[in-house]
Design goal:
Layout: E1 3-10, E2 13-16, E3 29-37, E4 40-41, H1 44-57, H2 66-80, E5 85-92, E6 97-103, H3 110-115, E7 117-123, H4 136-148, E8 153-157, E9 163-166, E10 170-175, E11 178-181, H5 191-202, E12 207-209, E13 222-227, E14 231-238, E15 241-242, H6 248-267
Parallel strand pairs: 7-8, 7-14, 11-12
Antiparallel strand pairs: 1-2, 1-6, 3-4, 3-5, 5-6, 8-9, 10-11, 10-13, 13-14, 14-15
Length: about 270
């Protein structure tokens, strides 16, 4: 397990991490990763809604209690005395085992937000992309490619040559001052992704869900990654292609999203 901290929560009981056994890697595990800021889980209700959706997509009845999960998260934060970080909620379907724990996180530096990050193209696709299910072999293959190329993230391309999503993020593109992103049927419907679409609509920035060929990347005005850890992070390079990290629409969305986070934490 990629757990950090002294304690985790297992079926609503706090346990020392050192006493916990690994879960069988062949088991089907539904999961969510969310961010803790100032001891508060960010956009928690959206993560729980997506977890329910993952259950539905694999035809498993949602058997968890959201109120209990909220209590468990608060207990986890208190027991580990954490102010910020990422937590993972996992449910092992066969063992009916719910675990909540802190995991290692890597947040972009201020320089990364300012200068953008390098990405690579990876020709591969997830099974059942709408469901957040652990697929370790796929994750390991992509991570190896990312490391080999000294990249921050890999942009997945499907068998038809369309950009789908990042290996651990969603991808947005800017063309003719319009935000483009893959149709939701082809990607994990990220919580951050949903917030960005809402923010864009609130600011009269048009968003279109379209299939976009990787071969047309050179026609874009900009691209960015979004997710729980990176928030909104400009892309400065895709393979050997340079991208505009300073696109005005991307910078506007970054500012608005950070304000959205501040408001959520203040009000919850």
């Amino acid at each position: 397990m990629d757990v950090i901290g002294e304690f985790l929560i297992e079926n609503s009981m706090a346990k020392e991490v050192r006493t916990i056994n690994e879960i069988n890697k062949d088991s089907k595990v539904v999961y969510e990763v969310l961010r803790i800021i100032d001891r508060k889980p960010l956009f928690l209700e959206n993560h729980l809604a997506r977890m329910k959706n993952s259950f539905n997509l694999i035809n498993i009845e949602y058997c968890l209690n959201d109120d209990e999960i909220v209590k468990d998260i608060n207990t986890l934060i208190e027991k580990n005395n954490k102010i910020e970080g990422n937590i993972k909620i996992t449910y092992n379907v066969s063992e009916k085992l719910l675990r909540i724990f802190f995991i290692k996180h890597s947040y972009p530096s201020e320089l990364m937000y300012e200068n953008g990050v390098k990405t690579i193209l990876y020709f591969g696709e997830r099974d059942n992309p709408n469901a957040k299910i652990i697929n370790q072999s796929f994750r390991d293959k992509v991570n190896n490619k990312i490391k080999q190329n000294y990249a921050y993230e890999a942009i997945l391309v499907d068998r038809n040559g369309y950009i789908t999503e990042g290996s651990k993020s969603n991808i947005f593109m800017v063309k003719n001052n319009i935000i483009l992103t893959s149709p939701v049927k082809s990607v994990l419907p990220g919580v951050t992704r949903g917030e960005i679409i809402k923010i864009a609509n609130d600011n009269n920035i048009e968003v279109r869900e379209i299939e976009y060929k990787y071969s047309d990347i050179n026609k874009l005005q900009g691209m960015f990654i979004c997710g729980t850890s990176p928030k909104i992070l400009p892309i400065n390079k895709v393979n050997d292609m340079d991208m505009n990290k300073d696109n005005k629409i991307i910078r506007k969305l970054m500012e608005c999203y950070n304000n959205e986070i501040d408001d959520y934490i203040r009000l919850n």
